[in-house]
Amino acid sequence: MDAFTTHTGTGVPLRRSNVDTDQIIPAEYLKRVTKSGFEDGLFAAWRKDETFVLNDPTYAAGSVLVAGPDFGTGSSREHAVWALMNYGFRVVISSRFADIFLGNSGKAGLLTAQCSQDDVELLWKLLENEPGTPVVVDLVSRTITAGELVAAFEVDEYTRWRLLEGLDDISLTLRNEGDITAYEGTRPAWKPVTI
Amino acid sequence: MGSDVADHGGGGATNRFVEVLVVGRTLAEKVWDAHVVRRGEGEPDLLYIDLHLLHEVTSPQAFDGLRLAGRPVRRPDLTLATEDHNVPTTPGPITDPISLTQVQTLRRNCEEFGIKLYPMGDAEQGIVHVVGPQLGLTQPGMTVVCGDSHTSTHGAFGALAFGIGTSEVEHVLATQTLPLKPFRTMAVTVEGDLPEGVTSKDIVLAVIARIGTGGGQGYVLEYRGSAIRALSMEGRMTVCNMSIEAGARAGMIAPDETTFEYLKGRDHAPQGADWDAAVASWRELRTDDDAEFDNEIVLDAASLTPFVTWGTNPGQGAPLGESVPDPSTMDDTERQSAERALEYMGLVAGTPLRRIAVNTVFVGSCTNGRIEDLRAAASVVRGRQVADGVRMLVVPGSARVRLQAEAEGLDAIFTEAGAEWRLPGCSMCLAMNPDKLAPGERSASTSNRNFEGRQGKGGRTHLVSPLVAAATAVRGTLASPSDLEPLATPVVDLATQEA
After folding, report:
1. Which candidate, B231, B349, B248, places its Cα nearest to that of B297?
2. In this complex, do B268 and A20 lie within 8 Å of one another by their Cβ atoms?
3. B148: nearest CA partner in chain A
4. Is B84 an interface residue toward A (CB < 8 Å)?
5. Torsions phi, psi for B230 (to 5 deg)
6. Are the C-beta atoms of A12 and A62 separated by less than 8 Å?
7. Does B11 have pLDDT greater than 50?
8. A162 FRET partner, CA 20 to 30 A, in A146, B83, B397, B461?
9. Could B37 and A176 be called an inter-chain contact, meaning their C-beta atoms sit closer than 8 Å?
10. Does the beta carbon of B104 lie under 8 angstroms from any beta carbon of chain A?
11. pTM value?
């Protein structure tokens, strides 16, 4: 995984709450067996509407998505994270993320920056009034800077450390393989097996 | 878990651990603590996973990751795969080449890594969350994960069960553990007796409407109270299944005699002396009287009625007797979301929900595709006919459920009423297989999500219980069994007939 320290890119105002993962990437795109090439399915239904924000050339190359509360609800599909990243997004800003989406993002290297809904509203206004304004997301100082606006964001401390270091979760766990083996020795014999 | 430092004013992991020993623990905390492989300052807890379920959609990239890193599957004997999302529910092979590739990829991966797979056509095949419990693999006190958000279903047995993403699937395959931050705990207490015609589906839809799609975020919900204890295992699975629709990672119900009775004698349940040891340990799995939840809501079962959704998220629901709500009476965020939902759903505020006509009725899914659900739907359509212009699909959740239903004659009841009796799979719950809504079509569906396009592009979904689904099929508009004309000849009660 690539390390993440700071990112500067075009902000995209997505004025919707409850953006579920079925909207981020509809089920028909989930049949692929790779992690790449999902950009065509990102917000597929909404992109058919010519007024949808990503159809505006000013925002089309955006990399910082600013969305309403409860982003990423519903299905556990990590394809939603891959679709956002394949399209070019590196950061999603929202006042509240769904749990599974939050976990998936941290593993895959997409930064989920949680800030207050008031700051989201200010960002929306700024990005709509001055489209193309660059947004700077600094994971070291946990701040979002756009124009005159400086907003603090929250991110789980452990995820932040992993993103800053670009560390892979499985190797970290396997450093403690002895603990796993020791635990396995304590499991009751009647616990079920599948084979 | 649950005892967040911020919530309890503790000073770190060590204090928190001492604290939980002193004050009594919730069911979720007990299961969590029993699975901690490693707990370190500033790290998430590393939890051991007792059962890892796989299906074809969220696993291919995880196996690819293992191959790239040259890692084996640590515990194939704690892993089980089934084919469900892509499978057609009519006889014959998969015709969509991309679906076929995905299923073939799962078969190849399971063979290469030594994992047990129940493929299409196998006597044990079915929806992953129906298969685990019916085999007796899901047991109280276990940790169960799957790359599928409806893994919360297994919490009905007092297991800590939750959905994970593909990176986590790879992590569990490689290590049989997951690093996790503690969840908080919320008690959802439902006391009293459910009125006639009100089911577990109505309970959970009412809970979601009450706390919203984000209300459970970060929580494990523990369903408690006399109305929950009175539910069958099937009913409990329906409730826990939809915990994710309230934003919660998991739902749990303390195991009791109903749980033990369901498990006893199942293929993978402990036998003989092991059974006694297991039951003795399972009886400890209840929230201590002095344990504290981080949050609690209380519902009065007697006040519940059949519940249906009108919008495009599962929190946008109302009692069947009410009307489509008026967005102008809501606060800003909710209003925008409701306006958009009504536009998508083609509904006008103020329309009585009972006047909404549907084209399609779907009975099935990991929410309501079990034998009891099919019995409930059959009891309503028995001796009646599906309304003209309405298509009713009945899709058993597994091959075993299908055989059981056929042994009870339920298939004949459905087909005589004009419904279609299908092969097991996820079917019309999500548009990944041939069972889909066409644009503009409207369904009453026993599944779990009414998101835009969930059942097919432009499709409009009303989430309902099996009883409401069946009554709606007969009347052609959203209805409960009490809305139907009584039958001229009384029908013999199925349960009585069996006895």
Report:
1. B248
2. no
3. A76
4. no
5. -75, -10
6. yes
7. no
8. A146
9. yes
10. no
11. 0.91
pLDDT class for B467, splitting at 50, 70, 90?
very high
Question: Of all residues in chain B, what percent carry a pLDDT higher than 70?
Answer: 93
Nearest Cα of chain A lies from the Cα of B483 at a distance, in angstroms, of 33
CB contact under 8 A, B61 and A23: no
Q: Which of residues 369-428 of B touch A (CB under 8 A)?
A: none
**What distance in Å separates the CA atoms of residue B73 and residue B171, rounded to the nearest whole number?**
10
| Cβ contact, residue pair A73, B214, below 8 Å | yes
Over residues B189-200, the pLDDT tens digits come to 999 999 999 999
A1 Cβ under 8 Å from any chain B Cβ? no
Q: Report d(CA B458, CA B442) in Å as an integer.
A: 9
Q: Which of B74, B179, B214 sits opposite A70 (nearest CB)?
A: B214
Contact of B61 with chain A, judged by CB distance below 8 Å, is answered with yes
Instruction: Spell out the alpha helix ranges (H) of B300-396.
Output: 332-345, 365-368, 371-381
- In a mutational test of the A interface, the residue from B57, B71, B151 whose CB has the highest number of chain A CBs within 10 Å is B57
B316 interface with A at CB cutoff 8 Å: no
CA distances from B258 to A47, A143, B253 (A): 49, 52, 11
What are the DSSP calls for B403-472, one per residue?
Answer: HHHHHTTHHHHHHHTTPEE--SSSGGGSTTSS--PPTT-EEEESSS---TTTTSTT-EEEE--HHHHHHH
pLDDT tens string B55-110: 999 999 999 999 988 999 999 999 999 999 999 999 999 999 999 999 999 999 99
Q: What residues does A97 pair with on adjacent strands?
A: A71
Residues of B in contact with A158 (CB under 8 A): 42-44, 179, 181
Distance between CA B149 and CA A136 in Å, rounded?
33
Confidence of residue B493 (pLDDT cuts 50, 70, 90): low
Token output for B217:
């975020």
The ipTM (two decimal places) reads: 0.90
Helix axes B399-407, B371-381, angle to 10 degrees: 40
| 3-state SS class at B51 | strand
Establish if A68 touches chain B: CB-CB under 8 angstroms. Answer: yes
Its sign, for the CA torsion B205, B209, B212, B215, is negative
A39-A43-A48-A51 Cα dihedral, nearest 10 degrees: -110
How many Cβ contacts (< 8 angstroms) between chains A and B? Answer: 207
Residue whose token pair is 């892979």: A168
- Dihedral of the alpha carbons of A95, A5, A80, A42, in degrees to the nearest 10: 90
| Residues of B with Cβ-Cβ distance to A17 under 8 angstroms | 333, 336-337
**Residue B398: strand, helix, or coil:** strand
Degrees to nearest 5, angle at CA B374 with B370 and B379: 150
- CB distance from B89 to chain A under 8 Å? no
Eight-state DSSP code of residue B265: T
Q: Is A69 on the interface with B (CB under 8 A)?
A: yes
* Cα of B381 to nearest chain A Cα, Å: 31
Would you call A195 and B270 a contact, using CB atoms and an 8 Å cutoff?
no
For residues B52 and B82, give the distance between their C-alpha atoms in angstroms, rounded to a whole number: 11
Model confidence at B398: pLDDT above 80: yes
On chain B, the residues whose CB falls within 8 A of the CB of A156 are 181
